[in-house]
Specification:
With about 210 residues, this protein is of the alpha/beta class. It has 2 domains: about 90 residues, Rossmann fold, CATH 3.40.50.20; about 110 residues, Hexapeptide repeat proteins (UDP N-Acetylglucosamine Acyltransferase, domain 1, 3 Solenoid). Helices cover about 15% and strands about 30% of the residues. The strands form 4 sheets. The protein has a 7-stranded parallel beta sheet, with helices on one face. Strands 7-10-13-16-19-22 form a 6-stranded parallel beta sheet, with no helix packed on it. It has a 5-stranded mixed beta sheet with strand order 3-4-2-1-5. Strand 3 and strand 4 form a beta hairpin.
C-alpha cells in the first residue's frame, strides 16, 4: 500500500483515519499536529510532530498527504495546508467512504473528502479539497468550488453553484438554482432561497 500522512489529529482526522483504513489503499504512517504531544496515539496512529516534518517525510518516500483539519466557519487553514503539501509535491488523494453514493456522471477533484452517507448526484462537479460531510446531499448539475465545506446533513438542491471557500453549516438547505458566493458563511439550519454575494454571512429561514 502507498504511504500517507494525516495532517491534524482532531475529530475530523479520526473520521478520515477510519475511512482510509476501510479503503485498504493506504498505510497511515503517522499524524502531524502541533497541538498534540509527540508519541500520542490517535485511533492507533502515532503523532510524529509538527507540519515542519512534511519535507523530510516526502524525502523518505511518503508521497501522499491527507488534510485532516476540519473547519468551523472558515476554511482558510485547510486551503493553506492543501497548497503547502501540493507545493512540496505530495499527492492529496480523493477519500470517499464506501457507504457514500456518487453518480457515475459526477466528478470530484484531488483532495475531495466524501463521508459516510453522503450523496452526490449526476453531472455534479466538486473541486479540490472540498468536504462533503456525513449525510450531506448534493443533487444534480451542481458546481462546488475549491476548499468548500458542506457540513453534515446539508441539502444542496439541483443546479446550485457554491463558490470557493464557502462554508455551509450543518442541516442547512440550499434550494435549486441558487448561487453561493466565494467565502460565504451559511449558518447551521438555514434555508437559502436567494443568491448570496461573496464573503457574506447569512442565517435563518429564509437566510438573510
Amino acid at each position: 500500500m502507498d504511504k500517507i500522512v494525516v495532517i491534524g489529529g482532531g475529530g475530523h482526522a479520526k473520521v478520515l483515519i477510519e475511512l482510509i483504513r476501510g479503503s485498504g489503499r493506504y498505510d497511515i504512517i503517522g499524524i502531524l499536529d502541533s497541538q498534540l504531544e509527540i508519541g500520542l496515539s490517535v485511533l492507533g496512529v502515532s503523532v510524529l510532530g509538527r507540519d515542519e516534518l512534511l519535507r523530510d517525510l516526502y524525502d523518505k518516500e511518503v508521497k501522499n498527504a491527507c488534510i485532516g483539519i476540519g473547519s468551523i466557519n472558515n476554511n482558510n487553514k485547510r486551503k493553506t495546508l492543501f497548497e503547502k503539501v501540493k507545493e512540496i509535491g505530495f499527492g492529496v488523494p480523493q477519500l470517499v467512504h464506501s457507504k457514500s453514493i456518487l453518480s457515475d456522471e459526477s466528478k470530484i477533484a484531488d483532495g475531495v473528502q466524501v463521508m459516510a452517507g453522503a450523496v452526490i448526484q449526476t453531472n455534479t462537479f466538486v473541486d479540490q479539497n472540498t468536504i462533503i460531510n456525513t449525510g450531506a446531499i448534493v443533487d444534480h448539475d451542481c458546481i462546488l468550488g475549491k476548499h468548500v465545506h458542506i457540513c453534515p446533513g446539508v441539502v444542496i438542491s439541483g443546479g446550485c453553484i457554491i463558490g470557493d471557500g464557502a462554508f455551509i453549516g450543518a442541516g442547512s438547505t440550499v434550494i435549486q438554482g441558487v448561487k453561493i458566493g466565494k467565502g460565504t458563511l451559511v449558518g447551521a439550519g438555514s434555508l437559502v432561497v436567494h443568491d448570496v454575494f461573496n464573503g457574506a454571512t447569512v442565517k435563518g429561514s429564509p437566510a438573510k
